[in-house]
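Journal club prep, shared notes

We agreed each person brings one worked example of a sequence with its structure written out as tokens. Mine is 2,4-dienoyl-CoA reductase. I'm keeping it raw so we can talk through how to read the token line rather than staring at a rendered picture. Sequence first:
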Amino acid sequence: MSTIYPHLLEPLDLGFTTLKNRALMGSMHTGLEDKAKDFPKLAAYFAERARGGVGLMVTGGFAPNVEGWLSPFGSKLSKRSEVKRHLQVTQAVHDEGGKICLQILHAGRYGYSPLCVSASNIKSPISPFRPRALSTKGVYRTIKDYANSASLAQSAGYDGVEIMGSEGYFINQFLVTHTNNRTDEWGGSYENRMRLPVEIIKAVRAKVGSNFIIIYRLSMLDLIEQGSTWEEVVMLGKAIEAAGATIINTGVGWHEARVPTIATSVPRGAFAWISGRMKDHVSIPVVATNRINEPKVANDIIARGDADMISMARPFLADAEFINKAEAGSPESINTCIGCNQACLDHTFSGKRSTCLVNPRACYETELNYTQATAPKRVAVIGAGPAGLSAATVLADRGHQVDLFDKSNEIGGQFNIAKKIPGKEEFFETLRYFEHKIQETGVNLHLNEHASAEGLIDAKYDEVILAAGITPRALKIPGADRANVLSYIDVVAGEKPVGKRVAIIGAGGIGFDVAEFLSHQGASPSLNIESFNREWGVDKSYASRGACVYAQPTPSPREITMLQRTAGKMGKGLGKTTGWIHRAALKMKDVKMITGVQYHKIDDNGLHFTIQDGEPQLIECDTVVVCAGQESNIDLLQALEAADVTTHLIGGSKLAGELDAKRAIREGFELGASI
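Then the structure, token by token:
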């Protein structure tokens, strides 16, 4: 056992079985669960993480019946005929010495299906279908369906099940008056409303016997106005233990809650305090979760008594070897989850297969592999941004001789801008990982060096990869050359002075980042739990229902107006699961947003514009920041191709319309694997 993280790596005795450490790989829906043909890929995905040392894993959610579907014909375990495909998963995990539980998840009113049901006929704000209120008989039948699904999971070789009672899904919908206005034995008093999860746990335990793990995902912080009180949460926790649960896992926030819970802007370990509070009331192990992405944070939470186990879901997407690396005492080699949601949750909620921005192999373990090169080549990579870093390190890992050039004095490219944005400090971790990877793989790094076509041709490289990034697109209106007109690079990287009144031209991801940067002062709330709670209205005293109070954001030090040419919703291209966070954060800072704009000129008075050919308007401002897109740097391409040098374009050099780190890194990985 590592002496650095003794608490995280200590075994956990559950009585009838022992977990080899305190790390739980939490449930994530990857999309591989939905089709029988994808189960070999799902098996490989879990096997790699079992091999990486995870103590216990939980699958994505499987519905106990068709009414509980997340989507039509999606993941479900309700029939004996569905068991066989799961045996591939459990066998693969057990062969690697791991343990795995199946999550039983009934979507309730969150289901994207006309068959969805709930406690009452109250539509969810995040799905299109109004649920049917489940009849009293239907509730009893559903309890049996949970027990049946657990029994089938046991037959499929799973070590246990997790009952999803959190995040606003079916069970949660029975617990609170926000979604339960029933008058039968499943509504009214809290004792009635909490009967559903208790009866489910009792039925499951009776069906599977004593030597089977039952995790209950308990919503400890609803973060909605009509959520549970702390006293109700404790009452349910005690009842769940008495009903036969083995472990209580912490759930934080309904999907419709207006508080970020797992995005990168949330401080590390921000919600461990609520797990610690529950631990005082039950005797079975309690799991802390949400935004725990490094072994020290996990170890410290257990050490101070806030939890018995730590759930880390996306960190195991980012690095399947997380636990092995922690045990080896080499945290610097961990590819850290940055909480971006771009390739995991955004994919899930868009019906795509999940993966990971910083690790494109996640969920592609059978398709994207880095075999040793049979004929090593000399390869030059131009540009040490995300695309160049991923390509160079994969190539070197495979045995190629790689020279990586960048005219800057540091690696990272556009990540060096992103890391300075409040709420995006995790980007420092990705650069730390790549710095380690460069050393580990033997990439020859050349900083402060401009690679010329002549030099590359004379060096006789077998192949050249152009990943030289982008140049900000210049604004072409009268006054664009004024001293008070700055690019986003001038503002964030160059730290040029910015006035008190600011107009931001362009409202893509970069425009929102610049607005975040300029609307904050002092320490970022993403680095301080108390500041985050105040900023977003999390009531740590739990005096209010759902621990939800009015937000008290720190005022912006500047008057900021964002403008975009296109009409319609601003920030439409932002991440599906994080865009609302950026819009809400700027709204709390009183940032003004104007769409459908035609720019005319900039003068001493400010920025002149019209909206859809309307009356001329003026924003009186001290500074104009231009975030109007980018252009690719491909000045080397023509000369290299003329000299018959095999040349590849990736990242911003290939497509610079809107910066996309997910695409850039994946292109680097895929190209690095193919040469």
